[in-house]
Design brief:
193 residues, single chain, eight-stranded antiparallel beta barrel, Lipocalin, alpha+beta, two-stranded antiparallel ribbon, 3 helices, globular
Length: 193
């Protein structure tokens, strides 16, 4: 698992943790958000991370319209003093009013296991803010019965995930989305020199 950015942006990817077993909406409901396509960087404590976001590869001819359900590919390359690490993910978008989300697919043993939810916002053209679900807030919501889910274990081996269907997740996030996500990580667009 990558250090700072990956932990903050795609929290819990190690061990295939998921926020939900169902996405907010199905792929293809919300068109891909081309405004976030590009190369982004994040610096912290001597580490440099690049996040590449773009369309998942398609066999469609160049210049043709992308398929409505085309997913977004996210490649994270972390530059550390002792070497490079990299991970790749596929996601599809969902919009609830002005709020934008990525449903980042988690795969375990070659099979879909669920999704990490990432809320994001552009600030101008060159600043992108990502935030992930707070596990504590999710545990509290599930424990209080505000959303169907399961909570098992504790510490690093804990598993907390929504089991509600997409319509229930959408309604829940419309009502409580602002309280469910942690502090955003700020990425800056890499521009050509």
């Amino acid at each position: 698992m990558m250090a700072t950015l990956a932990l903050a942006v795609v929290a819990g990817l190690a061990g295939c943790k998921v926020d939900t077993v169902h996405p907010i909406s199905a792929a293809g409901v919300t068109p891909p958000d081309r405004s976030i396509y590009g190369a982004w960087q994040y610096r912290e404590k001597g580490e440099l991370t690049y996040v590449h976001i773009g369309p998942e590869f398609s066999l469609a001819a160049a210049g043709t319209a992308p398929p409505a359900d085309q997913r977004t590919r996210i490649v994270i390359v972390d530059h550390k003093p002792n070497g490079l690490t990299g991970e790749a993910y596929v996601a599809h978008g969902s919009r609830l009013g002005q709020a934008r989300y990525l449903n980042v697919l988690q795969v375990e043993d070659g099979k879909p296991a669920g999704y990490i939810l990432v809320r994001y916002a552009l600030a101008g053209r060159d600043t992108l803010r990502f935030s992930t679900v707070s596990e504590d807030a999710l545990k509290a919501a599930i424990g209080a019965g505000r959303i169907a889910g399961s909570v098992r274990g504790a510490g690093l081996s804990s598993e907390t995930a929504m089991t509600a269907g997409s319509a229930e997740i959408e309604a829940f996030l419309r009502a409580e989305g602002d309280r469910m996500f942690g502090k955003p990580v700020v990425l800056r667009r890499v521009t050509a020199p």
